[in-house]
Design a protein that fits this description.
Strand order of the largest sheet: 8-2-5-9
Radius of gyration: 20 Å
Number of helices: 12
Number of domains: 3
Largest sheet: 4 strands, antiparallel
Helix content: 40-55%
CATH architecture of the largest domain: Sandwich
Strand content: 15-25%
Order of helices and strands: EEEEEEEEHEHHHHHHHHHHH
C-alpha cells in the first residue's frame, strides 16, 4: 500500500511496517507519523481472538498543517528532520485527544462541531512534539523534505513512465547528488526503488480487484517484460504473482490491508 501522511496509534496489539530497508515494529507504547506518501508493506504481529488488533489512524490535512504552521514560532536551525516516517514514545495528551475523537463516532450530533477542534489539537501536539519539525518544514514548503515531496508527487502521478534523476532533481530544485541523498534519507529507498514499489503495489491491487493475470497487470503498470515483472514482484512480496494472489484471496482479512 502507499501510506498517505498520517498519525497512526495502536490501542491494542502490534504491527510491523517495512519501508525500503527499514523495519519498524510498534505497539501501544509508541505512535507512528508518516509525513510523506510512502510505499510500504505491513503486517499485524500481535493479535488474538480475546485481544484483537485495534488502531487509530488520522490522515493529515495539508491545508490544516499549513494553517497551524503559520501560528507556530520559526523552527530552530537544523530542526528539519529528513525522514518521512518516524516513531515516537506515546504521550498522555495524544491518547486523550485520540480517545475523545474516537468517542465522537457514537456521538453523531456533536461530531461535526467537535471533531475539527480535536483534529486541530492532535496536529498541534504532533507539530510541537518530538519529530514535529518535519511536519512543520513540509507545511512551510521551504524545506528539503518539502522539495522531496514535490518529486514524490510527480512519481506518484507518472509511475508508469520512465524518468531521469535529473528531471526529479529539477522538480526538487536540487543538484542530482543532493537530491539522491535527501530522497534516500526521506524514504529509505532510491527514486527507482520507489517507482518499482508503486508499480508492484498497483499491479497487486489490479490482480486482486480486477482479476487481471500477471502479464496484463505488469503491462498496465509499465513493465514491458513479464519475466522482469515476476522477478521484481517476487523480490518484494516473497512469492511469484499467482501464488501471492491466491494466498491473499484465501485470507480476505490480509487482502483488506493491501
Amino acid at each position: 500500500m502507499v501510506q498517505r501522511p498520517a498519525l497512526c496509534i495502536i490501542a491494542q496489539g502490534g504491527k510491523r511496517v517495512l519501508l525500503g530497508d527499514a523495519v519498524i515494529d510498534y505497539g501501544p507504547a509508541s505512535y507512528l507519523v508518516a509525513s510523506l506518501d510512502l510505499p510500504i508493506t505491513g503486517a499485524v504481529t500481535q493479535a488474538s481472538a480475546n485481544a484483537p488488533y485495534l488502531c487509530f489512524c488520522l490522515y493529515l490535512d495539508p491545508a490544516l498543517l499549513s494553517e497551524i504552521a503559520l501560528t507556530l514560532p520559526p523552527l530552530p536551525a537544523g530542526a528539519d528532520e529528513s525522514r518521512g516516517m518516524t516513531l515516537h514514545p506515546m504521550t498522555p495528551e495524544l491518547i486523550d485527544a485520540a480517545t475523545r475523537l474516537t468517542a465522537l463516532l457514537s456521538d453523531l450530533a456533536n461530531a461535526p462541531l467537535l471533531a475539527p477542534l480535536i483534529e486541530r489539537e492532535l496536529l498541534v501536539r504532533l507539530m510541537t512534539g518530538p519529530g514535529g519539525g518535519v511536519l512543520r518544514a513540509i507545511a512551510s514548503g521551504e524545506s528539503r523534505t518539502g522539495q522531496i515531496a514535490q518529486a514524490i508527487a510527480w512519481l506518484k502521478a507518472h509511475f508508469r513512465e520512465p524518468f531521469s534523476g535529473a528531471h526529479l532533481a529539477g522538480l526538487a530544485s536540487m543538484s542530482l547528488s543532493s537530491f539522491h541523498d535527501h530522497f534516500r534519507r526521506a524514504t529509505a529507498m532510491t527514486p527507482l526503488q520507489y517507482q518499482k514499489q508503486l508499480r508492484l503495489q498497483e499491479a497487486r491491487a489490479l490482480m486482486l480487484a480486477d482479476r487481471l493475470d500477471a502479464a496484463e497487470a505488469g503491462f498496465r503498470v509499465g513493465y514491458d517484460s513479464p519475466s522482469q515483472f515476476s522477478r521484481e514482484y517476487r523480490r518484494l512480496f516473497g512469492e511469484p504473482p499467482v501464488r501471492d494472489i491466491s494466498r491473499l484471496r484465501a485470507t480476505p482479512q490480509i487482502a483488506m490491508e493491501i
